[in-house]
Amino acid sequence: MKRLIALLSATVLAALFAVPSDACTGISLSAADGSRVVARTVEWAATPMQCGYVVAPRGHQHQSYTPTGDNGLKYSGRYGYVGIYTEYEPFVVEGVNESGLSAGLFFFPQYGEYGPYDEKNNDRTLCDMQFVSWVLSQFSTIDEVKEALAKIDLVTLNHKIGAVHWRIAEPNGRMVVLEVVKGVPNFYENTLGVLTNAPGFPWHMTNLNNYVNLEPGSAADNTIAPGIVLQPLGHGSGMLGLPGDFTSPSRFVRATFFQTTAPTWDTGFETVVQAFHILNNFDIPVGSQHAKADIPKGLPSATQFTAVTDQTDMKFYYRTAWNSNIRCIDLKDIDFEKVGFQSTPLDAVQQQPVEMVKIR
User: Fold this and answer.
1) What is d(CA 60, CA 56) in angstroms, rounded to the nearest whole number?
2) Considering the entire predicted model, what is its pTM?
3) What DSSP state is assigned to residue 166?
4) Where would I find the H helices in the chain?
5) Has residue 120 got a pLDDT over 90?
6) Which of 94, 137, 222, 287 is the most exposed place for a label (fewest CB within 10 A)?
7) Is residue 251 exposed (0-12), middle (13-18) or buried (19+ Cβ within 10 Å)?
8) Using an 8 Å Cβ cutoff, are 254 and 248 in contact?
9) Please, what are the domains in the chain?
């Protein structure tokens, strides 16, 4: 409990989800063999985060925190899951359970607002930072989540960190975005499969209309006057005007066009690799979010980790700012009935390994 109190200090909370770090970008892809893949980045540009993965078995006893302590909703895990946490083990931000249901948390500043906290309702109160763990441990479908959400109070531990919203995806391809605004939960069917941060999901979908002129490939030559022909200066000129900054609206547009123009690969694994390549475009150089005098030391990238889930083959992949090698956890190899709860740092050593090539 002492660790949690320290974690929830105003200074740490401000750092956990400060405005310069609200840059998570999510996409989804399908393979020709029917495989479904969801992928996302997680950013934080202040200091190196202490992230790790957890393996939670069936029957694991969960306890939600409230603004007054570890006295919130108690529940036993119906499903085992694997997920990545940031700073504190119960705060899982991305994961998948043994039924293939995937869930992820994305920062949603200024636009989200939960209902008021009532200490008398502690037995049904769930912390927003533990929502992903709750979903993964309890449910196999989106409709089950919808039904259960009406019976709980969703709260924040400290209003200084702002609200979050969530992406929930079934292995059959159905995906929803959950946003709580003025205390009212709103589920949006996300047939596109892209998610970033604020403003709300409907706004982002409307904003795509501002880019109706974009298309893959190269623009045609354009004769604007006798003897004057404008020609593309390179391949991909059909995408001229695609926004390149790191704001949430621009990343949503960019992710949409990279995702929807990506080829359909034969297998889930090829699609996983494609997802990593697409999300390369959203790696944020750490210096781009700071004045030169404020650049933190020891942080190679504001994108602290990227996670990709093959919901069909039940594999959870990730790489980090310190190790760009892709690592994989195969849920099929885990006996969630017998395995014990465990957590492991994503990087035992925060240093990029290098494979030396010997010349003979």
Assistant:
1) 7
2) 0.92
3) E
4) 2-7, 10-16, 131-138, 142-149, 201-207, 248-260, 268-280
5) yes
6) 222
7) buried
8) no
9) 2-200+264-345 (3.60.60.10)
